[in-house]
Amino acid sequence: MTELATRAQAFGLVAQGVAAGLSAPWRLYLARGCRYLSLSVGDRAEWDAWRTHLGCPELSVRVYDAGGEIRRSSVAEVVLDGCRISVELVEEVSTDDLDRLLVADPTPVEPEER
After folding, report:
1. I need a surface site. Which of 9, 59, 61, 96 has the fewest CB within 10 A?
2. Which of 49-55's residues contact partners 24+ apart within 8 Å by CB, and which partners?
3. Phi, psi torsion values for 7, nearest 5 degrees
């Protein structure tokens, strides 16, 4: 795909990912003028798959309080032919897991043996 000049091309980009075996995003936002496409996914495996598929070099993580709940928003972005494409994952985290809040790629920590 050489450009994302139309809505059909932007939706085609998503359809190509789904046809390649990726899970369909649970939310899709396409701005008027096709200059911004946002995909929201349900879990970290889907986020990793979409950001790899799209070749997203820009990653950001934001942790915030949402009415007493702590949430972590991971966003991967890429610009293709003037269209900014972002893949976002929002996870609820607890204060019991503070060490993982700002880690870009959290992995489970095995308990120490006694």
Report:
1. 96
2. 49/22, 49/23, 50/17, 50/22, 50/25, 50/76, 50/87, 51/76, 51/87, 53/17, 53/20, 53/22, 54/17, 54/78, 54/80, 54/85, 54/87
3. -60, -40
CB atoms within 10 A of CB 58: 12
pLDDT tens, position by position, 91-107: 988 766 666 656 666 55
For residue 43, CA distances in Å to 12, 18, 38, 49, 52 come to: 23, 16, 16, 10, 14
Residue pair 67/75 in contact by the 8 Å Cβ criterion:
no
* Contacts of 9 by beta carbon, 8 Å cutoff, 6+ apart: 1, 3, 34
Q: pTM of the predicted model, to two decimals?
A: 0.74
Kindly calculate the radius of gyration of the chain based on its CA atoms and give it in whole angstroms. Answer: 16
